[in-house]
Every structure is written in C-alpha cells, then in structure tokens.
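notes to self, project folder thing:

trying the whole complex as one job this time. last attempt i did each chain seperately and stitching them together was a nightmare. two parts in total, labels are on each line so i dont mix them up again. if this works i'll redo the older ones the same way
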Amino acid sequence: MRKYISLFLWSLLFPFSMDGQNWNLINSEQTSYEREEKSFYAETKQVNQFIRRFNAEENVLGIRLSSNDSLYHSSQLRKNYINMLFDNQNTSISDMLKSAFINDVTQDANPKFLDFHGGEWFGETFVKFDRGSQEVFITLFMELVKENLGSKWVVGDIYYNPYEDLYGRDAGSGSRFLHPLSHELDFMNLDRVFKSGNHTGDYFYQGFHPDKLSIFMYELRNNTLQFNYVSGVKFHFFQIDGWYFEITEFNRPGLNRGWLISNLIKLEDGQKQKLINFIYHRD
Amino acid sequence: MKNQSIIYLFLLLFSMSISGLAQDNISPQRKMAIDSLALEKVRDLSKYISIIGSKETAWSEANRVIERTLELFSEGAQMGVSTINQPKVKYYDIRTYLERLMALNYDKVKIEWFNIEYMSDLERMPDGRYVGVITIYQRFEGSSGDKMKYMDTTKKDITVYVERKQTQIGGRLIGFWDVLLGDVRVIETKP
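result (full assembly):
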C-alpha cells in the first residue's frame, strides 16, 4: 500500500515521470480507505511539515531526509513541493507572482530556506472569550522567543477593538490640562479629568499610550474575560528577503489541504515594517 | 502491558546509556531512536482507544485499559475536540474523554487507524525537556442494529514530551529518555 501511495505522491510532484501503467494500477485499486489515506499523505499536516516541505527536508511519505541525501534541499524537489504548498483555490495569488516567488527561493546560486528559529515569523490566533453574557473574539499575536535552554511562544501583542479606542489625541487635546496651580486647590480639578471620558488620557504624561496587554491581563484576572476556545490560527512569514506570505490551515476534501500559503506579497523597499504594523493594527 | 513498559525501559537504557550522562543535545541518530519510542507510545494509545471504544470489551477490562492509557499521559493533559460543522472546541481531561468513549451508545463501534504517523522535529523547551507533535488519523464507525448511526474521520495531533532522566542500576547511574504524551488536538476532517 505504501508503495502505491508513494508512487501516487511522486506522480503529483513529477507528473511526467510516471508511466501510465502505474497510474492505472493506482486508480483501479483505489478504495475509499486508500483515497482517504492519499489525501492525508498529501496534506501538509503541521507547520513543521510546511517548513520541511518548503526546504525539501523530507520525502513524499513525510520521512526526514538525511542531509547527505541527494534530494535534501534539492531545488527541483523544492519547486515541486512549494508549488503544492499554495492554496490552489485562492485566485488572488497570480501564477506569475507564484512563479517569481518559487524561482527566487529555489535559485541555485542563492537558495532561501525557512528556519523555525530564524525569527521574522509570528502567529495570529483568534480566541473566543466570554465577557459577561457577551461572546467576544480577541486576536492574540504569538511570538516564538528563546529562553534558557530552549524556546517558547509568548503573547506579544493583542488586538481587541474596544481597547483600540481607549485614548487618542484630537484637536482639543491641547486645551485639556490641569493648570500649574492646581496643587493649591488639592487638585480638586481632577474631577474634570475623570469626567472627560475618552479624553482622560490628555491629562496623563506626554507620550502616553494605553498598554493593551496590561488591560487584557487585568480583565482576565478580575474574570471580566473568560477563555472559551481558540477558533483559528494563521502565521505570517517575513523570513524570505523581499517577500511576505501567510499560511492558514485548510480542512477540506482533496489533496490541496492542511497548512498552505493563503497570501503572498512581493515587498518593495520600506514595505515590510508597514505591513507588520498593518497586521498588528498599529498606526 | 507491564512487560511492554519494562521492554521500553530496557531499550531506552540500552540505547541511551552508551553516550554517557553529560549529553544535553540530541544527535540526529538519537532523535530517530526517540522518535521511534514516541511513536510506540502513540501506537499504544491508538490500541487502547480501540479497546476502550469496542463494545466487545468488558466494562472492567475497559476501565483497566483506561488506567493504562492515563499512564501514557503527563498530568493535566487535555483533549481539544472540534467538528467540521461547529467551530467550537470542547476541552476534556483525558479520563473524561476516555470514559465518554467507553459509554457511547452504540451496539457496535469500529475504530480504524490510518497507516500514517507524522512526527515533527523535537524542539527544546526552556526547562530543558523536549517536545514534539505526532499526527495520526482515525476512522470511527458506530452502529445500532443494522443501521450505521455515526461515522467520522478525525485528525489527532498529539503532544509528546521527552525528558532525560536517570536511574540507578547495579549501583551505576544510567541516563535514559522518558516519553510522555500531552495535550491532544482532535479535529474532524473530510478526506
């Protein structure tokens, strides 16, 4: 059975190298179990497998290739793998852009690989919380950091719309202040500060920005927010010079499934930081 | 089952003690040996789930196998279960998950495992232990009378913790790698 699966998967990678006899053999002997098994083999089952396939560090059965193996980091194998790592139902990524990306990362003179510990990639998780009787979704940005002997994921930042509108300067900000002799009246004008709603921050130190993580932690600690479940995850990669891509997990029938590239952008000079800020919802 | 555990321990001691105790990083060859041990644990889990779920297993035997299954897991491990039609993820502790499996209201239950085991790289955690994830696929069929009542295929992503430990044998300290299972993500999937 494994032999047929392997032949089938190689046929996907190298469609012209497979003779018709084997192809017929595979199709005629297919049972529903075998069809399912093929799609599971084809599925990019883990982010780890996405990276290994991208780099051509495993064979079609998912077995790690030794660094001495002729296929290890082979540019031809990478071309075939990476082509399969795109969400083929996504028409917003043009074939031309896809080819330019694949050619760039697989060029013999300067191949570009993904590195789990190479930084410049992060996760975006959508988490459902209960907030009293309300159900709310909060985006947590997850970052992989080194610590002591190993590494761990941390919550680097969050996005939750009500936290975004806590404070913003406006045209009237310059006229909102506690005058310099407020101390002579025991700061009785603080009354004005605490009635100023969205403008309270105007009375704080210059350059003040609300710390969203602190507010989030406070709301968790006083049980205003209660974790429900993680409803979705995607990852943003900026590791490949001049490119950005996003990967998402697709749970659907067929062979093009699992962790796949769901967005690809060729970055011009200066665009990288702007895009990172955009993803993090930073102004 | 106890015999199996003794064999694992023996194999671990035999294969791991050669390199001495000072080793912190795992060589590729050693990683392969640890992968095999982790896969053995997952195969045990698969086997136990099939036994617990089977209606032919006596209640007392199923309970005994549940206890054995729990020994495979680290403390506090959970199953996070989601279906295709509902985005909600339900979290169960392992015992509750297994007891629910045992109590399923079908006359006949058939649990099959696909011949696929995908093992991630082992990554080191801040505390020095290693962690990996093994992905497997399961097909479940439950029927009552002649009618098929329910069928699903699930993908299971199983956390594997690998820890270097020491034991004393004949007055000598021997290092070995211990493997425990952790949280499991269970997703219904459509092939």
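what i see at first glance: Chain B touches chain A at residues 24, 28, 80, 82, 84, 87-91, 112, 114-116, 118, 120-121, 123-128, 133, 135, 137, 139, 153, 155, 157, 187, 189-191 (CB under 8 Å).
need to look closer tmrw
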